[in-house]
Amino acid sequence: MLMQKGFASDNNSGVHPDVIRAIEAANSDHVVAYGDDVYTKRAIEKMRQAFGKDIDVHFVFGGTGANAVALKAMTDSYNAIICAETAHMNVEEVGAPEKLTGCKLLTIPSKNGKITVDGIKSHLHALGNQHHAQPKVVSITQSTEYGTVYTPDEIRDIADFAHEMGLLLHVDGARLANAAVSLGTGFKQITAGVGVDALSFGGTKNGMMYGEAVIFFDRELSKDFKYIQKQATQLPSKMRFISAQFDAVLSNGLWRSMAANANEMAKTLANELRSIPQIKITQNVEANAVFALIPKRYLAEIRKRYFFYTWHEDAKSAEVRLMASFDTTIEDIDAFVEFLKDVIEK
């Protein structure tokens, strides 16, 4: 079903034309399956240019799979994984990390999607106690589920503390490109350069058709990954069609320009919404997400034209999430805001 172009999710957007062209270019002749091909070799080299030479890169189908297999490689079944209570792996992955790893998720309350060293400390009281799941990994999301962004210093503080306590740091980077643009950095400065051990690197939300990457900065963690990846059904046979997309996204600054547009459009949308007295922005707009409180009496009418997700609601209002994408335009924002004003002013 076709829908009004709107702000429900950056997953709802199409695919950048350069990515489509890369897929078409890869659709020629036969190559060896499962990654032993020129497209995958070229994409891995681009990854090493962006993240650092001493890394292991593995391409998988989707974000939930990337998180689950990365965490499986980092843990034993008696371990626990510490994350924000808002984390995608806790809220929206239907228990996939727990099922694959056997680990318990230990969550930290967070009003803005970010966690701190103090929050992590609250789960370390039973280290060495055989009656309790043993924390092994801290996982943070960059940018967070609330569209906020960890600074390099904040990540370094978490990484240093985690390593001091014998823990590892994983980053769910489904929107890492948006975070890097927000911070004005490259990828290495917010991953390998600040102590991250493993990364789930997203492409789908930033102009790709499908596909994510698992990157290990601590290469010892990936020594058995090929078996984990296969057993978890995350090994693409025709890997070249994922690799070719990442090659395109990491070429000629494409990842940056796409994320920059999404971030800028989110800020523009937030500024326009602030002009409507009945709507309140609830989170800092640091990447490509806008969270807003809208009176519930308007929602049914708005949803007749625009689809979006509700995060929280009470008797009077609902906190909704509005996402900008690589292909969001000023015209899209103007049409949406004008429609909101018409509904509210009726």
Structural notes for this entry:
The structure is a single chain. By secondary structure, the chain is of the alpha/beta class. It has 2 domains: 17-249, 3-Layer(aba) Sandwich (Aspartate Aminotransferase, domain 2), CATH 3.40.640.10; 255-345, Alpha-Beta Complex (Aspartate Aminotransferase, domain 1), CATH 3.90.1150. It has 13 helices and 11 strands. The chain has helices at 17-26, 38-51, 63-74, 88-91, 96-101, 117-121, 152-164, 176-183, 225-231, 240-249, 254-273, 299-303, 330-345; strands at residues 56-60, 79-84, 104-108, 134-141, 168-173, 198-202, 212-216, 280-281, 289-295, 309-313, 317-323. Strand 8 and strand 9 form a beta hairpin. The longest helix has 20 residues, at 254-273. The chain is globular, with a radius of gyration of 20 Å. The model has no long low-confidence stretch (mean pLDDT 97).
Tally of helical runs: 13
Mean pLDDT: 97
Report, as a whole number of angstroms, the end-to-end distance.
29 Å
Question: Overall 3D geometry?
Answer: globular
State the CATH superfamily name of the largest domain. Answer: Type I PLP-dependent aspartate aminotransferase-like (Major domain)
Helix content: 25-40%
Looking at the structure, the CATH topology of the largest domain is: Aspartate Aminotransferase, domain 2
**Low-confidence runs:** none
Beta-strand portion reads: 15-25%
Report the structural category: alpha/beta
Strand arrangement, major sheet? 1-7-6-5-4-2-3
Number of strands: 11
